[in-house]
């Protein structure tokens, strides 16, 4: 079956970007630091659980984390758990040969460390119910993962450029919210990896903008408008995301100010010249969406502060 015009375009663009991918792989390897998950886990706090070893079963009192930090850690971990699905999705887009294939495997190996260290930390510190966590992992992975953009190359590159930065922000803020220096140190280390991943994809997206500015602008706009974190398929994700947003760990303001705007600014999206009518239309849609998101973020912040004020007044009255 002959390739469609879209497939020919995608193949041609990937060939043109192959040299940049090789350059970015070399840059990444020169900056990435080797680290070991077992060194970030407080093993001395560990005790046997109930089951074959006859230990003590988990109780809510075992956890020293706040509800907000605990829910965020669970979402972060379950998101990482679906790594096989992400590997398949990204390999379907980038392929398995040459520099593209090497990067897919390297990225997967680095991301896998994140799931290892977070799970070990949660288990050893008894921060969450390990039985509930394992059941949630099974259910989430049974659902699998399908990218909303399918195998569209430009959409895939645009998505991970924003998603990796979003993950970095979520990890760092979860660490701060945990109140545990060990947890914060661990998630700071994880976030450093996510930052390097973001730079790789962002630079690749910048290369695509130079070669195919109109198509890339359209892809960026469509991805930003439909953006969802990869963990959106987690059971109870909406409830968990509300808790996380109310705690200020990851909310609309952070998504707008610390994720979308920095990537778009670095790429010079709103300064780009020579766009076609289609490219310019996409950019206008992007600007309008960002304005609406900014307004929604402000509205959410106002309501959150009002809610916090009411709760504080109620607590004061109850003393």
TrEMBL record:
Cofactor(s) listed: Fe(2+); Fe cation
CC terms in the record's Gene Ontology section: cytosol
An annotated Gene Ontology molecular function: stearoyl-[ACP] desaturase activity
Cofactor: how bound: Binds 2 iron ions per subunit.
The family this protein is said to belong to: Belongs to the fatty acid desaturase type 2 family.
UniProt name for this protein: Acyl-ACP desaturase
One Pfam family per UniProt: FA_desaturase_2
InterPro entries, per the entry: Fatty_acid_desaturase-2, Ferritin-like_SF, RNR-like
Presence of the UniProt keyword Lipid biosynthesis in the record: yes
Binding site residues for Fe cation 1: 80, 111, 114, 194
Assembly information from the UniProt record: Homodimer.
Superkingdom of origin organism: Bacteria
Alphabetized UniProt keyword annotations: Fatty acid biosynthesis, Fatty acid metabolism, Iron, Lipid biosynthesis, Lipid metabolism, Metal-binding, Oxidoreductase
List of residues binding Fe cation 2: 111, 164, 194, 197
Biological process according to GO: fatty acid biosynthetic process
């Amino acid at each position: 079956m002959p390739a469609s015009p879209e497939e020919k375009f995608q193949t041609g663009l990937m060939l043109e970007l192959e040299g940049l991918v090789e350059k970015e792989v070399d840059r990444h390897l020169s900056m990435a630091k080797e680290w070991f998950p077992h060194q970030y886990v407080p093993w001395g706090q560990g005790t046997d659980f109930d089951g074959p070893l006859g230990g003590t079963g988990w109780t809510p009192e075992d956890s020293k984390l706040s509800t907000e930090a605990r829910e965020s850690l669970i979402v972060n971990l379950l998101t990482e758990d679906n790594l096989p699905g992400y590997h398949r999705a990204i390999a379907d887009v980038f392929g398995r040969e040459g520099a593209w294939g090497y990067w897919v495997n390297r990225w997967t190996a680095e991301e896998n460390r994140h799931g290892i260290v977070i799970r070990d930390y949660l288990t050893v510190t008894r921060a969450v119910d390990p039985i509930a966590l394992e059941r949630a992992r099974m259910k989430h992975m049974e659902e699998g993962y399908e990218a909303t953009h399918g195998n569209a190359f430009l959409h895939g590159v645009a998505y991970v450029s924003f998603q990796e930065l979003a993950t970095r922000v979520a990890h760092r803020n979860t660490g701060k919210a945990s109140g545990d220096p060990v947890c914060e140190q661990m998630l700071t280390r994880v976030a450093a990896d996510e930052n390097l991943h973001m730079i790789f994809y962002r630079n690749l997206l910048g290369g695509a903008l130079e070669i195919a500015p109109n198509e890339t602008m359209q892809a960026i706009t469509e991805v930003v408008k439909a953006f969802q974190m990869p963990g959106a398929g987690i059971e109870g994700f909406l409830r968990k995301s509300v808790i996380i947003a109310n705690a200020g760990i990851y909310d609309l303001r952070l998504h707008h100010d610390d994720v979308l705007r920095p990537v778009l600014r670095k790429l010079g999206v709103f300064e780009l010249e020579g766009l076609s009518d289609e490219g310019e239309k996409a950019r206008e849609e992007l600007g309008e969406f960002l304005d609406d998101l900014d307004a929604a973020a402000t509205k959410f912040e106002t309501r959150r502060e009002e809610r916090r004020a009411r709760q504080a007044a109620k607590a004061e009255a109850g003393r």
